[in-house]
Each structure stands twice: as C-alpha cells, then as structure tokens.
Design brief:
The protein is α/β, with parallel strands linked by helices. It is 34% helix and 24% strand.
Length: 331
C-alpha cells in the first residue's frame, strides 16, 4: 500500500540573531492511510516544527528548508504553490487540531458562525456547486455541522452553535476542534498535543473519541506528544525524535516491548515507577545552534563509539515495521 504521507530526509533551520538553529536534521517519517502515528520526544525535539512544516505554516522569513521532500498522496508539498495548498491541501485534505483550543477560537463570534465559515471555504460540497455558497449548500453544511457535533458527543448541538467560545468548557472546546478538523473530510489530521490543556479524566475521553472517529472514518492521524501514556492509548505506531533527528520507528507494541535505540530505552526507563523512583537521562539536550555531528544523542549515550560522532547511523531493521538509527541497537 502506498504511503499517505512520506517525509524524506527533511532538514530545516531557523534564522536567529545567533545563527542558524538546525531544528530538523534529515528527518524521515511515513504514515499509511488510516494509521494513527505518534510522534514523541522531549520538549524542543522538533515535533511541532515537523507538523507545521507538513502544513506549510512556518514563518517564511525565519524558516529555511535546506533539503528534503514531503510527499502527500505522491505530490511534493514543498514544491506546491500557495494556491494549490490552500485550495486542495491545507484545511481540507490535511487538517489541524491545536494544543490550546481556547486561543484558536475568535472570542467575538458565536461558535456556529466560525464553524460555518470553515464550511464556506472547505466544505466537501463546495465543488458540487461550482464554489458558490448557495442556500441549499448552506443548509446541507449546517446539517453536517450538527451531525458532527453529535458524533463528538456534544449534547444539544443547536444550543452549542449559538454560544461563544468562553461559554463552553475546555473539554467541549477540544471536541469542537476535533469536529472542525473532521468536517472537511480530510485524509490526514495533525493533532499537536491535543490534550495538553485538559485534566486527566477529560484527556482519556478525548483520546478515545479521536481514536474512534478516526477509525470509523478511515482518517490517518499524526499525533505529536511528549506523553508516552497518550501514545500507548491511541497510536498504531510511534516515531521517536531526539534533537531534530528521528531515531526509531516501530509499531506500538514493539516500541514498548523491545526498544532498540539507547535513547528510546532511556526514555521509557525515565517513566515513573511503582516505587516512586524516576531515572533521568544523564547530560543535556544539545544546543541546536551548534549540534554535535553524527547521531545527536552520542554525547549522552553509554554505548557511543567514534563512528557515532562522525556520521549519522544508517537505518537498521530489527523487526517487521521496526526501524532504528543506531550502530549497535539493542537486540
């Protein structure tokens, strides 16, 4: 089966007063149609930057793409013009669920007005009437909005549409974000740590809802998170990033049972244990203005050898669907 999304050897930096911060270094990522892929790693490892690069919403004056490709349904997004991205990809074929749903709403317009504005430009029915926002299409779009609010388990959807964003709870706002992401009938949803601002109980509900709706509708999801518990709950596969490099990708079960990269093993070992002890990772995350050559984890790795500092390790395959970049992966 061809990949829905393939990030190939993507390197990207941000221009700063101190120089170029090399935020992504030869990143590779693949998502199959209908797959839920978790992108995990410490804060600052490049998860959100990668997600925003796929959407093409990085600041152009600061971001510099040095090399690589992003293929979506076999088309290279990096070479596409803005008109094509806006009309066919961004907010339509690929949609986005942000970290903080409150700041993503306009506080001065009712929720219904904002959802119908999305449907005006991104409705699946837009092509059927030549792009004209006819009365019949508006009625069909409104019915679709109400049905989607019911699907995300929001009670009294008509009353919800009449409310302002501050009049609903944080969990309800995140359900609205999921609804808005699914309304254009996308093939891929990028969820950027969508439960960060919610309490644990609501987090579990939102994750189950997102998983169910994505599965029912055959939508692929790229979920960025630093919470391994979240990744375990919802993801089919997981890709691990460290300091702008992907170091391991595996099906979820293999990832938790048999981590192959030293960083992945350390990351899992750092989870809180029943005895209350937490094992940290020695050393510090490198400065991306002057990152180490080769594998960027080698200054903190107990198994590092001279080759690790000279060149980035090639991909090895310890199991089916399992890929790791390490000269000496764990068996």
């Amino acid at each position: 089966m061809p990949e829905l999304l393939a990030v190939e050897d993507l390197s990207l930096g941000f221009r700063t007063d101190a120089g170029l911060a090399r935020v992504l270094d030869g990143v590779n990522l693949a998502i199959q149609p209908g797959q839920i892929m978790g992108l995990v790693g410490e804060s600052g490892c490049g998860k959100t930057t990668l997600a925003r690069t796929v959407l093409g919403i990085l600041p152009r004056h600061a971001a510099l793409i040095e090399r690589g490709r992003i293929r979506f349904e076999r088309s290279d997004l990096l070479s596409a013009d803005d008109t094509t991205l806006n009309d066919q990809v961004r907010g339509k074929a690929i949609t986005f669920i942000p970290q903080d749903p409150f700041t993503s709403f306009n506080p001065v317009f009712p929720i219904g007005t904002q959802m119908m504005e999305i449907m005006r430009w991104k409705s699946p029915r837009r092509a059927q009437d030549g792009g004209h926002n006819t009365r019949a299409r508006r009625a069909a779009d409104r019915d679709a909005v109400l049905a989607m609010l019911d699907a995300v388990q929001l009670p009294q959807p008509r009353q919800v549409l009449a409310k302002y964003p501050h009049e609903v709870s944080g969990g309800q706002r995140q359900r609205l974000m999921i609804a808005m992401a699914l309304l254009p009938e996308p093939r891929l949803v990028i969820a950027d740590e969508p439960t960060t601002a919610l309490d644990v109980t609501i987090q579990a509900q939102i994750l189950k809802l997102l998983r169910r709706l994505a599965t029912e509708r055959g939508v692929a999801v790229l979920l960025t998170t630093h919470d391994l518990g979240t990744a375990y709950e919802i993801c089919d596969a997981i890709t691990v990033m460290y300091a702008g490099q992907e170091v391991e990708a595996a099906p979820t079960d293999a990832f938790f049972r048999h981590p192959a990269h030293p960083y992945t093993a350390r990351l899992l070992a750092s989870l809180p244990r029943a005895d209350g002890k937490v094992l940290g990772i020695p050393g510090e995350v490198p400065n991306l203005l002057a990152p180490p050559a080769g594998c960027r984890f080698h200054p903190r790795c107990e198994r590092a050898e001279p080759a690790c500092s000279r060149s980035r390790p090639p991909v090895t395959l310890p199991g089916q669907g399992h890929a790791v970049r390490c000269y000496h992966p764990q068996a």
